[in-house]
Amino acid sequence: MPLRMLDYWVRLYRLYRIPIVQVVVLLLPPPPTTVVETEFALGETRHGYRVLQLWQEDPERLMDDPALLPLATLAAAPATEPLLQSVAQRVNQLEDSRRQEALDYAKILAGLKFKGDLIRQIFREGVMRESVIVQEILEEGRQEGRQEGERSLILRLLKHRLGNIPEALQTRIHKLSLEQLESLGEALLDFSAVADLERWLNAIP
């Protein structure tokens, strides 16, 4: 990593010619024997950068900034459930245009540390029922419009969580019923790879 940070700095400075402050954000604690390096050193060359260890940060500092709010799910806290509840409440207070994106990212990051059941319980009860997109889905009078809205939301969550979704799997998702889409929306919190999605789809009767 130190060599990559030096390489990134050189490329950015060559391109923009402005001061650059580099910060590496570590989401989860590494193995106990891991040495967290903060400098590249070779001969006369020295290049330092900051390393932010998220699990040591005060969650309140992160929750005060809407852009950093999802990161608060991995910050320091004596108990996990109150932390997630606080994040859910802050997300719910955001303006409509920012709320859904913050919710998506908060759930994805929380999935790195917490069990899916806990995430579903807290965010579904605390935020999802209040989000604009989900409200529109629930209140949509026509089945077709409601199903399309649910499908769009599920695909976006899957892409955030798993990255690129193969076209073949997207096609299968488009064929799911509304009830199956709702079930997939709950199950995806436990997915960690595209293979998990494929197994879930294969298990559909």
Task: Kindly describe this structure.
21% of the residues are buried. 57% of the residues lie in helices and 8% in strands. With 205 residues, the protein is mainly α. α3 runs antiparallel to α4 (96-110) and α6 (132-139) runs antiparallel to α7 (143-162). The chain has a two-stranded parallel ribbon with strand order 1-4. It has a two-stranded antiparallel ribbon with strand order 2-3. The protein folds into two domains: 2-54, no CATH class; 56-202, no CATH class.
Short description:
This protein has 205 residues and is mainly α. It has two domains: 2-54, no CATH class; 56-202, no CATH class. It has ten helices and four strands; from the N terminus they run αββββααααααααα.
Strand order of the largest sheet: 1-4
Number of domains: 2
Briefly note the structural class of the backbone: mainly alpha
Counting DSSP E segments of at least 2 residues, the number of strands comes to 4
User: Mean pLDDT score, rounded?
Assistant: 84
Poorly predicted runs of 5 or more residues: 127-134
Fraction of helical residues? 55-70%
Cα gyration radius (Å): 20 Å
Q: How far is the N terminus from the C terminus?
A: 46 Å
Largest sheet: 2 strands, parallel
SSE string, helices as H and strands as E: HEEEEHHHHHHHHH
Principal-axis shape: globular
What is the number of helical segments per DSSP (H or I, 4+ residues)?
Answer: 10
Fraction of residues in β-strands: 5-15%
